[in-house]
Structures are given as structure tokens and as C-alpha cells.
Design a protein that fits this description.
Layout lengths: L17 H18 L23 E5 L5 E3 L2 E3 L4 H10 L5 E6 L5 H13 L3 E4 L8
Length: about 130
Amino acid sequence: MKIKRRHREGAEVSTDSLSDIMFFLLIFFLILSTLVNPSVIKINLPSSKANQQIDTKPIALVVTKDMQYYLNNKQVDAMNLESELVMAISQVKEPTIILKVDNSLTVQDLVNVMQLGAKLKVKMVLGTKPPNAR
């Protein structure tokens, strides 16, 4: 006696439109990521090709490759940097700090100084040199 087997049709998932859906999701997340503004340290980077003049007298903060700090050409200890900055900021109506960091330092060193400026709620710009300067 032969038992008849029924041939069942398997359930199939149509993947024809899957690539279109993935493409639209990719476009959606790309557009969404450009609209998101994470809370990061904001830096006004002056153009290195054109000089920009600042109306008020800026406060110059220089960080050397040896991690020595100079505030308006006066050497400041790292422990006293915040208090010296507070004094310098209090003497200016609209303080702007021009930050000049040696290019051999790490980005983390730059971020540490920028966080100090954000803590003091002062405008900071990154000083650069023109492309042809040595």
C-alpha cells in the first residue's frame, strides 16, 4: 500500500522590494544624522586663507609642545590656568580667547583646553597660520 504524500508549497518571502526599502532607510538615516546637533564643544575656526579681524582685544592662550601655557605672553602654571583666565576675562567687555596649540599635541589636549573655555562660557577661536607661512 502506497501512501500518498502531499507536496506542500513552502512559504516564500518576496525579497524583490527589500533592496528598495534598505535604500530608503539609508537615505533617511543619512538625512537624520545631518540634522542632529550633538552637544559638542563649538569652535569658531578662522579661515587660514583670509585674515579675520576681531574688534575687541583678544586674550591669547598658547599651549606649547611641552604642555606649557602662556596667557598673553605670560607663562602660567597648569594648576593656575583657570584662575588666571577668569582674571583676564573679567578685564575685557566681550572676551574672546585666541587659542594657539602646537600641532604636535593630541586632540585630547586641545579638547581639555576647550572644555575649560566652555566651563567659563567664553568665546574661543583656534588660531592658525596662513598656508604659505613657515
